[in-house]
Amino acid sequence: MSVISRELFIFPTKFKVLSIPSLLQERNENLEAYANIATANCSGVNMTPPGGSMNIYTTTLPMELPSDTMITIALSAWMSEMNLTPGPDVSSAQQNFVNMIYYKSTQVGCSYQKCDAGGGLYFYTIACAFDQSIQKGGKPYEASEKTGCTRSKCQKVYSDATCSQDTGLCGRPVPTTTASSPTSTPQPSESLKKCEFYYALQRINAYRAAVANGVMPIPGGELPGCTTMFALDCDPSLELLAKFTVQDCQPKNLTLPGNPLNFFWISRLPKDQEEKDVIDMALATWMSQINVNGTKAREYKN
Fold it and tell me: Which Pfam families does the record cross-reference, listed alphabetically (predicted)?
């Protein structure tokens, strides 16, 4: 097991990013799209993906700072919530922290926006959308005296999971296709670096690895380790949702009055799936709603 430097958690004088190789995660374009929508134009609109969660950080500063610095500040603020109630139990005041380290999450999309607030001030908005959210009464992860993942433990969460001994994080196989049929092959995900804010993904996975390996410092010690913490991969749909969330630095409803919006969400399709096939799936899904009330129904959704 590789050693995770505590310098990772000292900001800003000492700062080291742990490079977490994505051995097992997959890019989900649906989730990245959600993230891009969430941060677009600094609106701060919380557009939480179905079954997922959204973190939003906003601040006004009298200086221009690069995106990596602002993302670091946002992630550090979210992680600092763990000190409010040390340990892996959930409280409403820790929701951003919980969303970041919820062990079942496997995909994320983040975005950043800077807006001129006038008078020499700048308004910053950072948003991250996650594909999973903790259930009421649940825990962000199953605490363990052991640290780092094991394949058997990972597969109790997802049957196709694997374990990276380098990071101590579980992972999911990347869907690939062959001439005969789709398959799932555990391999590095090149799509990670296609994320606009790849740096945010690195930082979040570094935090998750620190928790999994029992080296995440809290007052008086460290958070308990976890044998079933999953690494996150980039999801384009989540990133798009995050972008719209921060759009224009002003909260807004993205659906125009009198102009309905249909949304179709699906994940884990082969990466070479043709666009027209996915569009056909969406249209067929929306049209199938006619069967809910029968052909004589007078009211339909869009």
Answer: CAP
Residue 75, phi-psi category: left (phi > 0), alpha (psi -120 to 50), beta (remainder): alpha
State the residue for tokens 């919006």: 261
Cα 248 to chain centroid distance, Å, stands at 22
pTM exceeds 0.90: no
Q: What is the end-to-end Cα distance of the chain in Å, rounded? A: 53
Residue with tokens 């221009």: 64
Residues ≥6 apart with Cβ < 8 Å to 155? 161
- Output the tens digit of pLDDT for each of the chain's 302 residues: 333 333 333 323 332 333 333 233 345 566 556 555 555 555 555 578 888 898 999 999 999 999 999 999 999 999 999 887 655 556 678 889 999 999 999 999 898 888 888 888 999 989 999 999 998 778 899 898 889 999 999 999 999 999 999 999 999 876 543 333 333 333 334 544 567 888 899 999 999 999 999 999 888 888 999 999 999 998 887 887 787 777 766 534 444 344 344 555 565 566 666 766 766 676 667 665 644 544 333 333 44
Looking up tokens 């590789």 gives 2
